[in-house]
Amino acid sequence: MSVFTENFLWGGAVAANQCEGAWNVDGKGVSTSDVCTGGSHTKSKRITRTMEPDTFYPSREAIDFYHRYKEDIALFAEMGFKVFRFSIAWARIFPTGMEAEPNEAGLEFYDKVINECLKYNIEPLVTISHYEMPFALTEKYNGWSSRECIDFYVKYAKTLFNRYKGKVKYWLTFNEINAGTMPMGNFLSLGILNEGTTDFNNQVDVPILRFQGLHHQFVASALAVKAGHEIDPQCKIGCMIAHMTTYPLTCNPDDVLKAQQQNQISNLLCGDVHVRGEYPHFMKRYFKENNLEIKMEPGDEAILKEGCVDFYTFSYYMSNCATAKADASISSGNIMGGAKNPYLEASDWGWQIDPKGLRYTLNELYGRYRIPLMVVENGLGAYDTIEEDGTIHDDYRIDYLRKHIVQMGEAIEDGVELMGYTPWGCIDLVSASTGEMAKRYGFIYVEKYDDGSGDLSRRKKKSFDWYQKVIETNGAALD
């Protein structure tokens, strides 16, 4: 028998900037993703302030979901999806972010995507802002470092709530909002492009801009939650955190404190503001010791209290270890690195695989917040090989997902209220961090490669049939 509830939301997740393409179609404006070039396993993508000739910008075509959404959603329905998490491209609705009226063609596109989902009884789970914004807002205001972006975002969010009222029950305000606590999160999550920057991974960090930008996003999210509830009282609005589960490398108290402090800044800051409606106690000392003074306008604290989320969602790919030792061996990971855990294996990209860490994380989060949780990103980025007969035997992906689903079941038996599960990249798409296609996550293979070649045809991997069975049995059949 399955431990998952009868209404458990099984599905998958994508993002507009990594799958849609059609970057200049039907009135869409230039987004921050449209000026990011391709990279590789060892070289991150670059940011260009102007469009460079003979340069590959992978998000401009991506996997062309814009023109193939019917085919893709039909495949999701064949797998049995109960929910499909996708994002809306802000620049498709407000091309510069500053228009008085929205772009009707952009709204109509999402009408069609949402209606296609509902045709198959798939609930849309919509992320309002997923690692992109109109590039004009970066150019004019340096993104979220300026308070002006709050009003632009709230107008955009209200437009969506009004347009899709009664059709979209579940919303997320910002994707992995806590990326703004990390230097490498400047551009993707905040649209901050510091002067002279050409490489996403090598920005000259200006911490006050990041944390001020994060505060502006907190206020914008709270205002959007309040507006969404007023426009459509039936909808549920959640947050989304990149959970950076961190253990102390050893039982040395210095390592234990280091892990606690890292967890506080990386995870709990954003969770507490979203769920509890206030900055946590430890931020006062952090701001003081780092010479950071966040400018809050009168009324901001009340806004945060009034705009608490209904549910908490997060991404979980790996865990990290923290240590006070300066010479510890470092492992790469989702947004931030950490000391290598000698008890764990790693993916081709160095992300340490820790299924039991997901159970631990679910228990920690539910114990702290006591609101419904949802794992909205989890998966294995790997190299996939097409066999001579056209099949793709991704047993490594099945093994990864199976072990994580088992641990979700354990967490449910522990008493955690878990709403659903949407593995990341249910169809192959462009990597957010590098612009690669080689780093594949999907149940569906897309004929597209790092140099931009490929006919974009779709084919099922072995994991497609496996996940179909998982959903059909509500998580009871995992072999």
From TrEMBL:
Pfam families: Glyco_hydro_1 (PF00232). Keywords: Hydrolase. InterPro entries: GH, GH_1_N_CS, Glyco_hydro_1. One of its GO terms (molecular function) is hydrolase activity. PANTHER family: 6-PHOSPHO-BETA-GLUCOSIDASE, GLYCOSYL HYDROLASE. Belongs to the glycosyl hydrolase 1 family. This is Glycoside hydrolase family 1 protein.
